[in-house]
Request: fold
Amino acid sequence: MSIINARQLVDHLDARVVGRRAELEQVIAGLAAGRHLLLEGPPGTGKSTLLRSIADALHSGFHFVEGNAELTPARLVGTFDPAAVLERGYSPDVFLDGPLTAALRDGSLLYIEEINRIPEETLNVLISVMSEGALEVPRLGSVIAADGFRLVAAMNPFDAIGTARISGAVYDRVCRLEMGYQEAGDETRIVADRCSDAAGRVGQVFVDGAVAIVRATRDHPDLRTGSSVRGSIDLVLVADQLAALRDSAALDPAVSRDAAQLALSGRVRVRDGCTRSATDIIDELWALHLAPKPEASEQAD
Reply:
């Protein structure tokens, strides 16, 4: 990819991926350099959105894999069709490609979400592919990576539940990019883009409050994990529908409070040892950012 084409690609995607120009530049540079990537950041920071947008713009194949404890090497690599093997033996045409093998063959992007949740034996397969540019499959032979194949993995470094420590062997074979949350203005744009009709009905004051309450969950001293911008989107969508059902306004206290609890209480995690519940904390933040404020005259009294 030439420098001019890379710049044009960044300019094109900058209008689609809100608030991520620097990250777009870094990911595109890494891919153009032939490197594999590791994107680190909390959920909802646009890691998969950014990569899908790049793949679409490049007209490249895209294989998505959800990392979890059930992702065995066989599921990632593929297997021989048992019935076909009985008829024709272990021939290449009866092998069912897994996402890794398919991406290697057609030179696609392989995106693995939550790589720190996959078993060590599966991780070792990926390390070998990144090192050798090929995959050795028993009875099938060697699958050589076609031009364009890249492995892009993602992980949430702040979630220790059900995860394993990523070895230095992985970090030695990837370029790492840290992705945090976007700025408040960018998140407001995302909400407006994702639910434009609902955002128009609830009004800008409500949208701003929805973004503010979600951002406040990330810094609250009693919360271990806050909400992503998905919480703001759901809050706007739920409030819009709840207001219509009750023939009321989204800023009505009963509507906005119920919508906030419905959209956010399941997205946050309370710190160990804290005696308050998620409901209590969402109520506190609702009162700060969405509840009606007293008029200036009442405050003076």
Remarks:
- The mean pLDDT is 92.
- The domain at 3-178 is CATH 3.40.50.300 (Rossmann fold).
- The longest strand covers residues 150-155.
